[in-house]
Design goal:
Length: 348
Amino acid sequence: MLKNLTTNQLLLIVIATLLLLLAAFSFYLLQNPSAPLPFFPARLTSSPTSPAPALTIISVPTTLAPTHRTSYTPRAAFITPGTQRPTEAPLISGTPMPVTTAYPNPPGATGSPKPTNTLASTSLAPSASSTTSASATATLSPGEHGVTGRILQNGTPVANVVMVFADDVAERQAGTNQGGHYWFITLAPGTNFTLTFNQADNLRLIPTAEVASLAKIEGTLPTGVDLIDLPDFEVSLNLNGSLFELQAPVDGAAYSASAISTAIPVQFNWSLYSLGGTYQVQVSPTGSDTPIFSTSQLAASSYMWNGTLDDSTHITQGTYSWRVVVTKSLGNNIVMIFTQQFDLVFNP
């Protein structure tokens, strides 16, 4: 049959066959574009390939949770030498104030600059006409270390409070700035220190009955730092709605000295200090802060006294005063807060 076909007819049959094959191949590719060509053998693999594991994104906080701080920490830039001269701290007319100058504030700080003083000894009760020392500068010299902290009255920073600082040299004093901060310079880190508040130097703080008659922080100055930051120092006796005060004997109470004994004791009572601590009763001659009788540290707020003094003698006729001091830890230091004094009279 093929022998009877002409050359043109055979050519048409070949072209039609090729067109059919191309159409079939195109249809195949449209059904599965990723399939291998039918005239290429499939690639063999030794083992199936596992899909890559999905990534898990873990959210990491960019800031740490804030840590509560119990005391003011000045910026390190505070001790950087500057060009600004210290300015004179204003004095309150009629109120004893220390000889002070003021450092420039650190960057970002608010309120008045910190007061400071030189290492020279100053009077503990200067008059209102005291002048400002011209030798103080805003630079810590080699070997010098700054001592700073904040004074509070019922939780509020107070300005112009006279504080007395002692380490291995003579006592010196400085007043607080508007932020309640004081500033001293020491040459002796590693030595013992005492920071003292005395109500007699700060009669402007009222009400008088709610302010400590005396308060102290004692401890050891740390080493290895240029700026020594002491804890906040609270001088109020009225905290959290509770007044730390004497209750009995009342102010001016009178006793017979010869009648006081173990059988007939004097009973001392006082209210608790709201921040806790241990208590000590002190009896002193009128006008003196040196006790002639002190109890051991007490947990209770009452004590029965038989009249025996610290030197083992018995109380004699005279006028005395009594008060209670609470002692508690404050950071690595010890703080002592004294109540107001009550008069105590002993007749023969």
